[in-house]
Amino acid sequence: MSKKSRLVKALGVMAILALVVSCAPTPTPSPTATAPPPAETPTPPPAPTPTEVPKPQGTITIAVGQDFFYLDPHQTIMMSDSSIHAQVQETLVYFDAQAKIQPLLATSWENVSPTEWVFHLREGVQFHNGEDFNADIVVYNTERILGEWGQPRHTLVTGYLDRAEKIDDYTVKLVTTEPDPVFLAQLTGFWFVPPGYIEEVGDDNYAEHPIGTGPYKFVEWVKDDHVTLTANLDYWGELPAIETVVYRVIPEAASRIAALQAGEVDIIPIPVDSFKVVDDSPNLTAVAIEGGVSPWVFFLAESPQNPDAVALEDVRVRRALNYAVDVDSICEDIWGGLTSRLGAQIPALLWGYDPSIEPYPYDPDKAKELLAEAGYPELTLNLEVPIGLMQKPVEVGEVIANDLEKVGVHVSMTSVEIGVLLGERDERRAAPLHIIPWGQALFDAWDKLFYPLHCESPYSMWCDPDLDELIDAANTTMNPDERQVILTEIQQFVHDEAPFIFLYAEPFVFGYNDRVTGFEPRADEKILAYGCSLAE
Amino acid sequence: MARYLFFRFLGAMLALLFVASLVFAILRLTGDPVNMLIPFGATPEEMDLFRRSLGLDKPLPVQYLEFLAGIPTLNMGLSFRYKEPAMGLVLERIPATLELATTALAIAFILGIPLGVLAAVYRNSALDSLISFLSFLGYATPQFWLGIMLILIFAVRLGWLPTSGSGSLRHLILPAITLATWPLGQLTRLTRSEMLEVLHKEYVRTARGKGLSEFRVIFRHALQNAAIPLVTLVGMNLAVFLGGAMLVETVFAWPGMGRLAVQAVSFRDFPLVQASVMLIATGFVIINFFVDILYAVLDPRIELQ
After folding, report:
1. I need a labelling partner for A260 at 20 to 30 A (CA). Which of A79, A118, B210, B291 fits?
2. Is the pLDDT of residue A9 over 60?
3. Which residues of A touch B149 (CB under 8 A)?
């Protein structure tokens, strides 16, 4: 009997403990008493000798939502892999956090003809295994990425690159198949690998232990768990301040935030909703950047789902729908003011964006006027919003549906899994209003031109020969000033013709521990430790 | 006995064939995976090239037969995303899932049976009510919520345990507890009801009459006879957890099979989904098979009619 009664008592205690712990009011975090500043050392520390460079020290942990796929930069088709590539390997040029092209392994360049670019290479650069970087390396890498091994990446990223010609040890000419105004942007995804190493280990095994010229060296990759990098002490440029970087995989956002709060990780991407929670936490800061992913409400006039869809052929109807939706309130309420309404289809971060193109103002009366004028005081249109790839599709969709109802457009909204929606779109049987988040990779208006709008694009629900002409011109004009003029014209055209309801660009939000300084949020899915240092 | 086993085996094979066909058909009904695997901007020609490299351009019956033919040799093709043998990827992660699942079931077993016995022996007392209430709680609490609550309390606020990940015993505690609550609730209730049934049987009174201690009566005689449904339950749960631990695996960033399978589905990674499903189904069938054998051993009265 006593055994049982002891057991009973133990269970009782456990049960009560559990209830107490879970029901206790969560204590509001008291303002952390800051540690008293270290006592002043009586003797000043010796002045560092001029040649002394601070050694990298410390570790930071970055938690990401999914594991990496291809550590061979010529094979990857995932943007998320680039966090690793950007620190282990290097390119001729790169995008800084403000999306501006900067020299890296190329110190300068000239666009000598529409299809030819001459690059002057940096001297004194070596791979982690000691091999030298020079024009031969560029030629080798070009051949590798154009060959079968590099097929997936070449097709998707460096598509116009045709060949490389060595001019001398540190000068190389790259030739494109056609004039490519965004060639430099494409080169930011063309990372270099060392030929000697590849000969040794073989193409297949390069990814087991990738080597580059970058500020960090690869240490290990435990699949589904973490990747570890360590500072490259022989780096040609400024040494990283942080010695060890660990990228941990934590798929669930709430778990990532918990890890950040517990001090287990230092930098994480967070959902927009968590901005306040993270920012208000002691020792944590949240930061956002307006990105390049722009969801648009596509119009499909041939949609078989509603007979009223043909109304979308009338520009007045399309403009009316733009007047009808209060996108500013979406930006304020759903996105916490972290983004803003777009005037045309190009987000502010991308090269070519023209701020003088004003967004449609919220004007439901004007919307009703236009609809009546066009002969459609009442309309019934379906709205499909995608699940997956877009943030907060249902919330945004509901606001749109409600706003449209107020001007006489009856909307029934359904959520559709993104893969399914894309399939419907391909077969032209999606709803007359469907939202697709349109991404970008080049920080240039480029991604928002041909594929969404050109007659010849299979993804475009739109066809206008005049616009095609402008797009073709924008895609082949090499002079940036001339190109900007064309892009401005395109944006005005697109604004006026309204092939979509213009919304906003999705914000990317990050949370980080205040012990990290120098963290710059990026809109290209890279979270880089290089450039950060530890506050002490 | 042999006939029993043979027919059970045949049934298992048919079930597997059915599952294989079902997963094959459903996957291909979800549409074109290439859309999800290649970023925007690929031309239709490039997508066709990609499709061909994945073997998706072959006629459906051919794909189906190749799929079936590969199963016995565990050749499920190369994962679309990882470019490695799909079955290999899944098998790599089994130990992690098993570690989690067996620990959770051990917790459920070690706590659940004594609790159930207590509840039965002290039927209708306050203790019984408390235990029944707690077991309902464990049964009904959503794993997702429980997992995150445990993380917030024990990892963030108290700092006793890591928030997620794997690699040490400390990492195992919270996910195992989270995963254990559901079978714990089930097992407690089932033990209780089984024991209640058995405690009134003739042989229990006989045992008491023989002067055996209450302890021996309960644990040797009564529980042994109540054991059969309990064994089934534990076995079923183990099989279910092979894929069903995915919520816990995701919340705790535990590198198991369930998480892999879920990711494979959202990326339409056909070979990986097929490999995961076939493995889970096979695991299920095998475990069931062994449970059936155990049945026959524990109770000689059981045989297939």
Report:
1. A79
2. no
3. 22
